[in-house]
Amino acid sequence: MNVLDKEAILNIIRSNEVTHFYHLAAILSAKGEQNPSKAWEVNMKGLLNVLECSVECKIDRLFFPSSIAVFGEGVDKNLTAQDSVLKPTSVYGISKAAGENWCNYYFEKYGLDVRSLRYPGIVGHQTLPGGGTTDYAVDIYYAAIKKSHFNCFLKKDTALPMMYMDDAIRATIELMEADGGRLQVRTSYNLQGMTFTPEEIYESIKKLQGDFTIDYQPDFRQEIADSWPSKLDDSAARKDWDWQPEYDLEKMTVEMYSAILAKQQN
Ligand code: SER
Q: Ligand 1 centroid vs 129 CA: distance in angstroms?
């Protein structure tokens, strides 16, 4: 289904009697910079279609993923507060910052129960990443297993907020199942899992594969990464719906490495 096709969205909601809607379609940060107007159209028009359809079909609950990309200059990068100023530097970030405000608007104006998280970089083995600045943290596992070598497109000390897929899915479901009366944030909740640099993830993989080597060849994505925080203050999420991450870097690496190894051997 094309998220730009409003009729198609309406048909799917109606024919499946959808009550809870998870709207994940978007063009990510790095890809978005290559075609800004397309990224804006998919991310904004897509969201507006979903918001309109949700009201028209009286959807019970809608989920919208925001991102660390909403932040830019003017925040404390070492612990970015929930209510920090939003000065995104990428088209993707601009679309997510605007999207959060649209969600809040639909909540206030139409009573639509829309809930949102500012995802960090998500690391998982189920699918290959597509077009994000944090993608290196997935690619690195495949490169280790396939070639014992990785060319990293970020500098070795670029610390970014990250999260293992299992934590991200659990956070999403927990927010969607939370008591709406406790939710104070209807733009988007800061969400923190772990923070690491390329060098730290490399070291964690090297413990499992001693011959693994790495080179650093930063490209245009370095500038995007440099504009983002390294850690978010997610105390509002912890307070309002009891958020608690379970994975740290070591635990994630053990799972990622063995899952991808098993996939490559089959
Ligand atoms: N993972 C996303 C990206 O890199 C950030 O939300 O674009």
A: 10
Task: Determine the atom of ligand 1 nearest the C-alpha atom of 121.
Answer: 1
Q: Which atom of ligand 1 is found nearest the CA of 30?
A: 7
Domain ranges of the chain: 6-265
- Per 3-state DSSP, what percentage of the chain is helix, strand, and coil (rounded to 5)? 50, 15, 35
If you measure from the C-alpha of residue 40 to the centroid of ligand 1, how many angstroms do you get, rounded to a whole number? 15
Structure confidence by residue, pLDDT tens digits, 2-42: 999 999 999 999 999 999 999 999 999 999 999 999 999 99
The pTM assigned to this predicted structure is: 0.96
- Residue 57: the pLDDT is 98
Whole-number pLDDT of residue 266:
77
Provide the residue type at 229 as one letter. Answer: P
Distance 257 CA to ligand 1 centre (A): 21
Say whether 142 is catalytic.
no
Q: What is the pLDDT of residues 83-93, one digit of tens each?
A: 999 999 999 99
CATH number assigned to the domain with residue range 6-265, chosen from the 4 options 3.40.50.720, 3.30.365.10, 3.40.50.300, 3.40.50.11740 = 3.40.50.720
Mean pLDDT value across residues 185-209: 98
Looking at ligand 1, which atom is closest to the CA of residue 119?
A: 6
* 222/218 Cα distance (integer angstroms): 6
Name the DSSP class of 182: G
